[in-house]
Amino acid sequence: MDEAVAILERTPTVMNALLRGQPAAWLGCRIEADSFSPIDVLGHLIFGEITDWIPRARTILEHGTSRAFEPFDRRGFVALIEGRTTDELLREFAELRAQNLEVLRSLALDEEKLDLRGLHPELGEVTMSQLLATWVAHDLGHIDQVMRTMARQYRDEVGPWRAYLSIIS
Asked: What is the pLDDT of residue 169?
């Protein structure tokens, strides 16, 4: 649990370092037309803080497997980020994450609670510990996605060094 929280606490700082002050071209770049841009990733993370991780933890604690989690809309963030500055979004993400980690700590998740099961609408039964591990891996995956997307913008400029840069290929 402590290791998971340590990673989750750092994600807003990492996203801040990657995105604050970047030009719109960097924030909106994509690897493919339907993939997330770096600013989309930030919106997605904010949306998850509002609708996913803690609400699902509470569903497990309150309902177990008798009630499925609300489905998560991967693109539900679009209206949330529209017309907002990167600074505003970074601040909101940091605030929501801090609040959610405070709630997570208040749940006092011991071994018994970590073994409790919930019902994912597509995957079936999952445990509280799997939910928390997924939260961490989800953060790391999206940090990787932002870095790969930004690095890919130099795909042609690096010339033959592309053969050594797995982040681009």
From this structure: 79
